[in-house]
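USER: Note each token:
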Amino acid sequence: MVHYLHRLSTEGKRGAKMALESCPKCHFIMLEGVLMTIEEHGQNGTIYVSDLAAAVKQPLPAVSRALRQLEQDGLIERITDSNDRRKTLVRPTEKGLDASRQVEAAISRYFERVICRIPEEQREQLFSLTGVLLEAVEAENAEQQAKLKGENENG
């Protein structure tokens, strides 16, 4: 099973990389991390740098380096908070949002082509089972997390 998952991951990444050849270079993983964190924890399309670091559980200097790269590429901008000049907000630029949309569309098109290679009957089975697999993984993760939490509280 581990070999299969590794192979699936490797081939999926290889295909996605080829699908992205025509897209703008945008440090997609970093940019998507920022965009998703803003969506989950930010307000009005922005997030404090310190809140971003806390949400992604990374040290502030590492987050600042990543943001500097995204900022140099014109994908995000940092803004001083007008209410507290010691704090810095981050928000995506139009260029960043556009790059993200282009990459997401290219990856979606790639996986749509992959799915079309699966016979229709098997495609229906696949779709019905993906939800079952995700639910099983989430349930196992929740149980493991609860066990770890219990061990940490007792030990």
Observations:
- The first strand starts at residue 47 and ends at 48.
